[in-house]
Amino acid sequence: xxxxxxxxxxxxxxxxxxxxxxxxxxxxxxxxxxxxxxxxxxxxxxxxxxxxxxxxxxxxxxxxxxxxxxxxxxxxxxxxxxxxxxxxxxxxxxxxxxxxxxxxxxxxxxxxxxxxxxxxxxxxxxxxxxxxxxxxxxxxx
Length: 141
Hints:
By secondary structure, the chain is an alpha/beta fold. The protein has one domain (7-131): Dna Topoisomerase Vi A Subunit, Chain: A, domain 2. 55% of the residues lie in helices and 10% in strands. It has 7 helices and 4 strands; from the N terminus they run H-E-H-E-H-E-H-E-H-H-H. It has helices at residues 7-22, 34-42, 52-62, 80-95, 103-110, 120-127, 132-140; strands at residues 27-31, 49-51, 71-74, 99-100. The chain starts with 6 loop residues before the first helix and ends with a helix. The relative contact order is 0.19. The mean pLDDT is 90.
């Protein structure tokens, strides 16, 4: 696979924009599980993470109060199952009065990152000489 020479800059921009959007106390990043969360943290994402199954459970128990006035960035996988989960979560959240921020998901897909979010860290390590350099900067911010 030929790597886009601008991949590094695209990913740096994506992480910075995601961190900026996720920096508010009423914003949660929804992932499928702990491997996705760990991969995103490893590339420098700072956010309040919620696993999709936890959110669904909370909505069943608490109803709309769980999502009203909150914004969700849904970063489920881009395979068939993850896309269906994204669509389901988006529908539930918006019907119950929450907001879904689609920018980060759209940008992730547009720059050619892997369809399985848990693979993003390994994907970048194979294509960028030292991915720890920008992430160390972000950890100190």
